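Sanity check. The docking grid for inosinic acid depends on where the pocket ends up, so I'm generating a full predicted complex first rather than guessing from homology. Inputs follow.
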Amino acid sequence: MPNTVLVGAQWGDEGKGKVIDVLTAQADIVVRYQGGSNAGHTVIAEGKKRVLRLIPSGILHEGKTCVIGNGVVMNPLDLIEEIEAMRASGVEPKGRLFISTRTQMVMLYHRALDKAEEAARPAGKKIGTTGRGIGPAYAAKVSRTGLRCGDMLSDRFLDLVREQVEEANAKLRMLKQERRDEGSDIEVPGCVIRDYQLDADEIVGIYAVVKEKLAPYIIDTVPLLHRAKAEGKSILMEGAQGTMLDIDFGTYPFVTSSNPTSGGACIGTGLSPRDIDCVVGVVKAYTTRVGEGPFPTELYNAVDLQDADGKTMAERGNEFGAVTKRPRRTGWYDAVVARYAQQVNGIDYWALTKLDVMDVFPKIKICVAYELDGRRIDYMPSSADELARVKPVYEEMDGWMCETSNITRFEDLPPKARAYVDRLIELSGGKLGILSIGPARESTLRIGL
Ligand code: IMP
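Predicted complex below; grid placement will be based on this.
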């Protein structure tokens, strides 16, 4: 397989975990290039369901090498939990999993800051973060105060942790004054927070254990990747979240703090743009979003939007966050989003997922353009305020009203389902590479990839 980048084309949760799992079969090395344990990839294989947050799902394929790239923010406690769960299920990560010395760490105090910052945001300004410390960890990276995995190998590591806990406690004292929900405290699993303050001794003790457990996995992964490339091995670079959550190209400020788009693959691995042969975009046959922010084709949000079609998508698609368990907002396929994703990522092939969720709709809508202040536009507005004002322009197609999940050949799709797929691809640009019609590894049709 050529060196491939895999990106989400919507607001995350497109079913990337499964597509990565399928493509991994042909790759030698899988590298995760951004995000942290805010993402959750669900993989169902041989009847077992696993949610991976940090370790590339390539770990489930014997003999594949997995790398956590420098663009990731890695919570060591989550990683240890994942390593131990792997081991308990008979998969040994040691010798196959490598973490870059340059990878930034998400510390317990970043999680506390994430929650305290969100609690201080007024209604309408909340981002609906996953509370996993992602924003504060990336903020520490760019303000050049972050701790990298390579620091774990130094004798000064625990002193640095102590210093940082004290700095975080000072920030938390300020955030406590600004909190909106008077009286409530913040909680972070794995440590005690009393009255917005962390205990430095407790935190240092936790990271002393972390250091022992993770040190054997930490290496400079840039030479590892370039050596592999020189040997003709094939590398799969996996992104988390999706294009519309990209810090630059997403619905800012309702975004995550990294670049899920394909450009992030170079920044987050140390491979160059010349090393990328192919970009695969994963897109769902409808749209979902978790957290706050504009969503033009939204139908259902489990709270104050209760459209029946949207509810059917949520239920049939099991639209609950793999990590946070939050219900996802749902709506029709938005081809403006997909076209934009095709452009900013350079998507060659689409992996279209969850087509089977659409089996029960007599009529299906596709958003082909927007109307902004009475004017028809076919591009993605750069401002979240504008995107919140657009009205979707829909095209309607007949549904196929029969089960697709038992189909084993693309040619056997019902003609109306085939027409829907063809139209989505035509509107979105690029070519169809993979069609997914059910959650299991086996329910995947390979077309052009
Ligand atoms: P953060 O990444 O936790 O800072 O959250 C920022 C925004 O990104 C929120 O709207 C989250 O719901 C969203 N987000 C983060 N990770 C994911 C994901 O894996 N899937 C979908 N949305 C996500």
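Relevant for the grid: Residues 11-13, 38-39, 127-130, 132, 134-135, 240-241, 245, 254, 256-257, 290-292 surround inosinic acid (CB under 6 Å).
Also worth noting: The mean pLDDT is 95.
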